[in-house]
Amino acid sequence: MEVRDYVIRRILYLVPTIFLVTLITFGLTRISGVPIGAYVNVASGQEQVEAAREMYGLDEPLWKQYLIWMRGILTGNWGWSTEASAPVTSALLQKAPASFELAIAGIIVAGIISITLGTLAGKYQDTWIDHFSRALAIGGMSTPQFWAGLMLILVGYVYLGWFPLGRSDPAIYATISHPTGFYTLDALLNANLAAFWDAVWHLFLPALTIGYAESAVITRHLRSEIVEKKREEYADAARARGVKEGIVFAKHIRRNALIPTVTVAGLSFAFLLRGIVVVELVFAWPGLGRWVANAAVAGDAPAIMGFILLVGVSTILVNLGVDVTYAYLDPRVELGE
């Protein structure tokens, strides 16, 4: 099977998966409280409540309610967020760029840490470097993110005063336009170096917190892959041909070890999106996680359901991207023939 056909087949597989996600999300809206709460706010009068009840078919059988709910999802009517005092879709569009920007920065940090430590640990197997790398990885897996974040704030913000909290300096943020909502990207589009460094400076501590936690699994996986690849016949064949050990490691061992690591990194990104709530709360980051945490306390069901649906679909799309990338990187991958 050609990679193109494989990609098409994987995209088709998304349909039932996304359908299942919407079904679960819809079910949650019906068991988490009064469904009418998703369509009206506290200021709505009795007539508006009755009108919404009729409009969304809340007196109809569940399957009809699901169809009406799906029509609302597809047309952008995801309900009203009392926490944001705005439609859920507006709140998602406003806050999602901040969260995705932080998540991307976090996975970049995780990649830098894990590739460095994993490569060294695999290359110098069973030495103090390997043991040191293992200790750092275990530390990343076992350290609660809220505690790691608080420690970084204590050192970087309170004691040293090097790093700020929040997402930006309001005065600098106001000097540029924001066509994408991604502060770093908008700063580059505006050719404003001060805004770009302001964005990077604010990103550093929260990205380091989530990046270090996610790097643990990637580091151990890459280390295991390198140790395994060092024993492969193609590596021995290269050595037998007189190829220098450094070239054998760089071109034959590490390169092949990195390919399956892409899958782990992609899954880590999906987990990172789900776990971003705590980090945003600790660092006062104005993204989806902080918003949905406040919504959970306030009982804002539409906001929670919107967040679940967005993260669910994002996870599916990230998984698709990982599978397609893997198929292109490794021609030997089984494409389902």
- The multimeric state of the shown protein is single chain
Radius of gyration, CA atoms, in whole angstroms = 24 Å
Strand content: under 5%
Output the strand order for the largest sheet.
Answer: 1-2
Fraction of helical residues = over 70%
Shape: globular
Uncertain spans:
none
How many helix segments? 14
Q: Cα distance, first to last residue?
A: 6 Å
Order of helices and strands: HHHEEHHHHHHHHHHH
The biggest beta sheet reads: 2 strands, antiparallel
The secondary-structure class comes to mainly alpha
- Average pLDDT over all residues: 84
Summarize the structure.
With 337 residues, the protein is mostly helical. It has 14 helices and two strands; from the N terminus they run αααββααααααααααα.
List the helices and strands and how they pair.
Blueprint: H1 3-31, H2 46-55, H3 62-74, E1 80-81, E2 86-87, H4 88-123, H5 128-142, H6 145-159, H7 170-173, H8 183-189, H9 193-229, H10 233-240, H11 245-274, H12 276-282, H13 288-298, H14 301-329
Antiparallel strand pairs: 1-2
